Amino acid sequence: ALKALGMPVGNPWVSSYDRIPVGCTTNGQKMFWNFHGSGRGRGDLMPICKAHVVVRPDDGALIVGRGTAIPLEWKDGKHPSGGAPAAHLMSARMQAVFNKVPTEAEAASLKIGAPKPSHACQICSGDVKVYGNSNGTLDAKTVFEVKGK
Q1: Where would I find the beta strands (DSSP E) of 19-64?
Q2: H-helix or E-strand containing 105?
Q3: What's the pLDDT tens digit per position in 76-85?
Q4: Is-above-0.70 flag for pTM?
């Protein structure tokens, strides 16, 4: 990120410390990557990247806000482990989950919900209702309803 902004990386500091901001920061001369589970602002350091999450090492739960833990399912059941909660780089993307209307079981396997759409369903028959494009195509914004949820 610093290189993309035309800023010097210097000799990067990469460690865990609770007295500097979590994630990627710079002092204008070099990069600091702090993977401590918590940190605090410092006047001489500017945040660069905010795309990091704090993961609890015992069960892989995502820690948000003031310590609220959100359970996650990790690929192959493997989550970052060992030591105290730590910051990890992350990325997010929106993409279609299904390319056809899912079965009830497939739709129920999704872990993240959405608010009830304000518009009418496009596909309203069957076990799974579909809210999305008026032409019936499924995309990243399509919402599925199973058993009223």
Answers
A1: 23-26, 31-34, 46-49, 52-55, 62-64
A2: helix 104-108
A3: 777 777 666 6
A4: no
